[in-house]
Design goal:
This protein has 13 helices and 5 strands. By secondary structure, the chain is mainly alpha-helical. α10 (240-253) packs across α11.
Amino acid sequence: MLGDKKVLFSGMQATGNLTLGNYLGALKNWVNLSDEYECFYSVVDMHSITVRQDPAELRRRARALLTLYIAAGLDPEKNCLYYQSHVSGHAELAWILNCYTYMGELNRMTQFKDKAAKNEDNINAGLFTYPVLMAADILLYQADVVPVGVDQRQHLELTRDLAERFNNIYGDVFTVPEPYIGKVGAKIMSLQSPDKKMSKSDENPNASIYLLDDPDTIIRKFKRAVTDSEANICYRDEQPGIKNLIDIYSVCTDQTPAQVEKEFAGKGYGDFKLAVGEAVVSVLSPLQAEVKRLEKDKAYIDNAIKNNAEKADYFANKTLRKVKKKVGYPQ
């Protein structure tokens, strides 16, 4: 707890371009949490280098992501928005936690297996110990809650195990985090493979709507969205493409799927796809305008980066000093 608020931690990688799925499923909901929680939102650029990155591009994307955080409505005065690499405590705590993590635990991580299969020419130790760095991210700020998707639940369970293991040896050092249970963000699927989540790493450019896509591109991608031959706009699992489009339209227009079905009863897929595209454009246009405004205000962004790094470092070091003393580092 910080003051009378519980602490919430989350972050996104500074690789690829954020998609509509990232926005509707996570970022949009983060904005509503800052009144209830003390929020730390990191640009997790240390995680990014488990895969080879172009240095200049990584720096550019990291700044673009932090700018997007602010443009989406995350006030840097109310939330701690910072680069993971600006707080050395992440790496220091990760090393200590590595010494309390068993090889068998890391061998069971399904994400390592998936990523190793995709990066056979660079299966590095960082890729293997990635979940320990994630645990350090969370435990460093004594986070009470962590919003996690299905693909990260295994990592949060490891984080909880490590916190409890350390506490059992040294006493009450870490807060044992819980998964954040609140309003569930929309799960947005690929426009070309609606059985898979929309992904910023999808090789098919028509599969994802990127947050900075221009209106014409957005409309074109929706026109090409995979549907079916049933010609009925129904919200059901048997029509995954249409179900996904209904989900998107529902969130963008603040309607229920049943209301969307009623609105488009008897209409064709062409009309529906166009309407979904236009609804997305109306949601993303203000965000894109704010990004452009913030990009011109270099001093404001630089100041937010500096102040938030100092704030994150302060709270990280409070935890780190305690941990170092417990494990026996000289004072």
